[in-house]
């Protein structure tokens, strides 16, 4: 596997971003920066953008190691860049398609919602489970 957490390929006028960190495809700051750079490479005036993950895993959402670290600066940074990425996908000037290749949890599910079209396979879990996590700061 390369140092890239996601890669860009092109088939005709379709730019394809594939998420593959070898694990849960979490939206860490480095994954988000990688995707942002790939979106910069995709043509904005023709074609469409397809976002997918590897077989069995679209994305597990935010990086839970960072989320549970207690480092509020890192958590805030990750959340801001994550939701900035969603805004960028939502406002992309060409059609955005998410091909949900597997589980899509939390931010992964939000990415599906921000795309113009979304497709998924039977079986994988898609959901927003933040309420069931204990991310509240102790008093």
Automatic annotation (TrEMBL):
<dbReference type="InterPro" id="IPR029045">
    <property type="entry name" value="ClpP/crotonase-like_dom_sf"/>
</dbReference>
<dbReference type="GO" id="GO:0003824">
    <property type="term" value="F:catalytic activity"/>
</dbReference>
<protein>
    <recommendedName>
        <fullName>Enoyl-CoA hydratase</fullName>
    </recommendedName>
</protein>
<dbReference type="GO" id="GO:0006635">
    <property type="term" value="P:fatty acid beta-oxidation"/>
</dbReference>
<dbReference type="InterPro" id="IPR001753">
    <property type="entry name" value="Enoyl-CoA_hydra/iso"/>
</dbReference>
<dbReference type="Pfam" id="PF00378">
    <property type="entry name" value="ECH_1"/>
</dbReference>
């Amino acid at each position: 596997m390369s140092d890239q957490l996601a890669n860009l390929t092109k088939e005709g006028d379709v730019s394809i971003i594939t998420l593959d960190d070898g694990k849960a495809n979490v939206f860490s700051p480095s994954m988000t920066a990688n995707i942002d750079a790939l979106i910069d490479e995709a043509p904005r005036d023709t074609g469409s953008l397809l976002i997918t993950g590897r077989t069995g895993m679209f994305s597990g959402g935010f990086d839970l190691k960072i989320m549970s670290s207690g480092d509020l600066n890192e958590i805030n940074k990750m959340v801001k860049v994550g939701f900035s990425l969603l805004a960028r996908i939502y406002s992309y000037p060409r059609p955005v398609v998410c091909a949900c290749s597997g589980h899509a949890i939390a931010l992964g599910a939000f990415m599906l919602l921000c795309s113009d079209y979304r497709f998924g396979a039977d079986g994988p879990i898609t959901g927003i489970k933040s309420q069931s996590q204990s991310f509240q700061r102790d008093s």
